[in-house]
Amino acid sequence: MTAFPPARPPGARSTSRSTSRAGARAGGFPWGVALPAAALSGIGLLLVWSATRNDPGSTLPERQTLSVLVGFALMWLLSRCDARVLRAYVPVVYLGGLAGLVAVLTPLGRTVNGSHAWIVLGPGLQFQPSEFAKVGTVLAVAAALGELRDGERRPPAGAVLLALGLAAVPIGLIMLEPDYGTMLVFATIVAGMLLAGGAPKRWFAGLAGIAALALLLVWRLDLIRPYQLQRVMVLADPDADPLGVGYNATQARIAIGSGGLLGKGLFHGEQTAGHFVPEQHTDFIFTVAGEELGFAGAACVIVLMLVLLWRGLRIAATAPSPFGTVLAGGVVCWLAFQTFVNAGMTMGLLPIAGLPLPFVSYGGSATISVFAAVGLLAAAGRRSTLR
Amino acid sequence: MRRRPSLGRIAVLYVTVTALMLTLLGRLWYLQVTTGPDYARAATQSRVRTVALPPVRGRILDVHGEPLVANQTRPQVSVDYMALIHQPDGGRAVLERLAGALGRPYREIADRARLCAADVPRPCWPGSPYQPITVADDVDVRTALWIAERQDEFPGVSTALRPVRTYPLGAAAAHLLGYLQPPSPDDPPGGPELVGRDGLESEYDRELAGRSGVRQMAVDSTGKVTGLIREEDPRPGDSLVTSIDARIQRIAHRALTRAVEGARKRGEPADAGAAVVLEAATGRVTALADYPSYDPEVWTGGVSQHDYETLPLVSGAVLGQWAPGSTWKVTSAAAAATAGYALRDTYDCPGAYTVGGRAFHNFDGIALGRMDMRRALVVSCDTIFYRLADKMWRHDGGLKPVRRPRDPMQAMAGQFGFGVPTGVDLPHEAAGRVPDRAWKKASWAATRTANCRRARTGYPDVPDRARAAYLKRLADENCRSGGVWRAGDAANFAIGQGDVLVTPLQLARGYAALANGGTVFSPRIGKAVVGPGGKVVRTVTPPVVGRIDVPRKTLRYIRDSLKGVPREGTAAAAFKGFPFKRLSVAGKTGTAEAYGRHDTSWFASFAPAAHPKYVVVVVVSQGGTGATAAAPAAREIWEGVYDLHPAKKKKDAGKKKTGKKSGEKHKRAR
């Protein structure tokens, strides 16, 4: 935390265009955040390859490579923008994301793996609008919270309400799918952004109250489905039903645990080869890392993510504008929460939820979205080229 | 100074994010390093499927090498339980198709393919769900091939040529050979698919079973085999060579069946029977037949619950216990000789003899005059034995016994091997009973309360008043002094009545001891265990477990006496026209009364009388007198064993009618 930039007048907009700092050099490539993201993606590609190595005719590694390349390009593109440009595009991106979420509820939507979260445009071309909606929502909330008038140190109540309103729409739409995991990601992102944006503490108390109330309602109104309840119960007693509800969790823990300190070697995981863990190339990709790369490799994935998160937080701390701070905070919360939930569920810390591991899991929409998020991170740290 | 209010908040995020990632790292360390070895083991278990390769079970052969139990290769259809339950409908469609192909009802196939549990009736699969479950093993080759060619229609169904147990003798040796069943949950896991459950199959199970081979295969999560890890060939089981002669076994079974059916024609219940053929000099079992019997083929391919409950599984030859009747007199005669009553002396055979104030009658109540012991055995005089028993009892002190009563008759019965299991190589055997003073006391103590109550209340439920009064008197007597070995008990004992119980095999070994000069064997059916290559693994010899401690000439005298029974004595009618010149058969009839039941019919015999080779014992429960049911069956066995080409028998002449009962406690024997 010693790397904070020199003090400037409160609320002052930077007028300098020559200040150049590491990670925020105008026009420069954002290596600080791009490198860990690229490293994670590289590991992810190998793991996807390994997880699908016995599937004849599988083109998933190739498709994932394409997604990474597209994501990387998008990241670079976004990193070139500065806050002002981003703000200009907020309505388009936000509304585009909402449109996708609405489209899912129309006959365009498809149910894949029990989640009605997909839009299929053709054979082999499907995407998950909720992933893109994350980008739009992060931007929109950042725009709402990051517009501080001169002299303001905290976002006013109106801004907070606006931010909550903007977040409530996609959350509500995702609730209709329903995809509670993704919903929680959105909620966490918004909470993190309120925190980063400096919203007064009472708001958090209020939101926590609302969350508790919602939880109570869900419980009392039996909105929670039996399988979801079971997923939670399995946490308490993982071996209760190893062939039923607990199957995924048990097999995931076996795969990771059997990796040991150094793993069985890439492409040498027997559990992976035998397809014991379902959805191994997507939501359970971390089990491949655990089995084949061992503690050394799997810890590497987490440490890389931690490096990326630290860099993001540093950007949040040093961002030239509150908008940047809030934006970076949102992205960090997004990546951190998704990483924690995903890795946590494969290791039996959390209930099974259908969330991908950022950069590592197979999945076009998710990959492109998280790279876009890294692009936003870079952009958040960039000083305005115009002022 | 605070530049922006959010800086502190960023620090919160910093700490939170770092804490989350460290949590993941900690959990990762715990899973992979702390508990990693456990998971590695779990991974191996989920990845490796172990299949036992069943060995070919050894055959059971008769003394000439003729198979009593053989193996036949038949196409067998098995299902993989794990593959079935992983199908969307739990395998129902597959089993329905399979049932159609086999021409069986779906229910039957589905029942066999389900796992046994407390609430699941037979048929069901009691083994491991990972073993192939045999659902049909009498499939013709074409059907099996048809199924094998359509693996896509029958996923999880496999066909293989598998050895199936066959029983060439059918019902003739069912009890002797026993049967196989899939192991129950009590059996140690990992054993063979079928284990011997009774008879020789059970007794020699370890040797017959061989050793299972093991095939360990790598499998994926759907159970698809991806590679072979280890394979160990099964070791075929050893064969058991027995002393059973299949020809004689068949003869004994046929003769016994005919005897039972004949008794039924005469109106007797004849509910069971047994025939035993022993080698007198060696104690080896030549034949062991039971009635009722069943066709052991029912065990092939899973027995239904109904069959299982109604099959006559209990072997009367070793588990049936009946009073021996007059066949017992050989031990009483030997006891009399050792107690100082010379066998060649003459004894009076009155129509009745009073023991303990009660008249004990001869079989027909007829006085036969003075005779020696030979004559007493030939005509089966009871009163002589009553008198001897009474004298011995009084010599021991009567109702106030001396400190160490000699009880010569009990002692002699023990020497003949009665009252203890013979130790034959069969899994279940009854011990019989030689009642003595201690037994009487113990059983009195056990029934005393009931007797004393009856002594007070009487028998109002018995309509016959005289009978009710008699029962009340009896209960009163039993209540007060039932534990005392009384003269009447001794008298009943002397003629094999009352509380004496023997199994047919015990009686056969007792007669074998009489025939061979006093050696009491523990009979053996098995003769040798022979390895798959023909090498003798071990030989089985009937151990000598006792000797009858009487002078050889006493036994010779008794043997010679028994020669008269089929020629001129109680069995003369049954042996009418028998070629005694070609085969000198000696024997003794026995007709044992049992309260509330028809008489037990016995015939115990040996031949040739001079140098006995075989002992033949036949019993027909509730079959009438020894002369009418058991003796003809024994004759038929002798004729069969020695191939005496019997002339058409006419069993009408000389048949004696049984006399009227002369009293409740008065046992008559013949």
TrEMBL record, chain A:
Membrane topology type: Multi-pass membrane protein
Name used for this protein in its record: peptidoglycan glycosyltransferase
Enzyme class, UniProt record, top EC level: transferase
One of the GO BP terms on file: regulation of cell shape
Catalyzed reaction equations: [GlcNAc-(1->4)-Mur2Ac(oyl-L-Ala-gamma-D-Glu-L-Lys-D-Ala-D-Ala)](n)-di-trans,octa-cis-undecaprenyl diphosphate + beta-D-GlcNAc-(1->4)-Mur2Ac(oyl-L-Ala-gamma-D-Glu-L-Lys-D-Ala-D-Ala)-di-trans,octa-cis-undecaprenyl diphosphate = [GlcNAc-(1->4)-Mur2Ac(oyl-L-Ala-gamma-D-Glu-L-Lys-D-Ala-D-Ala)](n+1)-di-trans,octa-cis-undecaprenyl diphosphate + di-trans,octa-cis-undecaprenyl diphosphate + H(+)
Residue ranges, annotated region (Disordered): 1-23
Lineage of origin: Bacteria, Bacillati, Actinomycetota, Actinomycetes, Streptosporangiales
Subcellular compartments: Membrane
Pathway the protein contributes to: Cell wall biogenesis; peptidoglycan biosynthesis
Source species, domain of life: Bacteria
UniProt organism field: Microbispora oryzae
GO cellular component, one term: cell division site
UniProt keywords, alphabetically: Cell shape, Membrane, Transmembrane, Transmembrane helix
Keyword Transmembrane applies: yes
Transmembrane spans: 29-51, 86-105, 157-174, 180-196, 203-221, 293-313, 325-353, 359-380
PANTHER family hit by this protein: CELL CYCLE PROTEIN
InterPro entries: Cell_cycle_FtsW-rel_CS (IPR018365), FtsW/RodA (IPR001182), RodA/MrdB (IPR011923)
E.C. number(s) listed in UniProt: 2.4.99.28
Biased composition (Low complexity): 10-23
Main location: membrane
MF terms (GO), sorted A to Z: lipid-linked peptidoglycan transporter activity; peptidoglycan glycosyltransferase activity
Statement: the UniProt record of this protein carries the keyword Ribosomal protein: no
Automatic annotation (TrEMBL), chain B:
Pfam families to which the protein is assigned, alphabetical: PBP_dimer, Transpeptidase
Membrane topology: Single-pass membrane protein
Transmembrane stretches, start-end: 12-31
Biased composition (Pro residues): 182-191
Protein name: Penicillin-binding protein 2
Family recorded in the similarity comment: Belongs to the transpeptidase family.
GO terms, molecular function: penicillin binding; peptidoglycan L,D-transpeptidase activity; serine-type D-Ala-D-Ala carboxypeptidase activity
Residue span(s) of domain Penicillin-binding protein dimerisation: 53-226
GO terms of biological process kind: cell wall organization; peptidoglycan biosynthetic process; proteolysis; regulation of cell shape
NCBIfam families for this protein: pbp2_mrdA
Gene3D superfamilies named among the record's database cross-references: DD-peptidase/beta-lactamase superfamily (3.40.710.10), Penicillin-binding protein 2a (Domain 2) (3.90.1310.10)
Cellular localisation: Cell membrane; Membrane
SUPFAM superfamilies assigned: beta-lactamase/transpeptidase-like (SSF56601), Penicillin binding protein dimerisation domain (SSF56519)
Keyword NAD: no
Encoding gene per record: mrdA
Cellular component, GO annotation: plasma membrane
Naturally occurring in which organism (per UniProt): Microbispora oryzae
Domain Penicillin-binding protein transpeptidase: 273-638
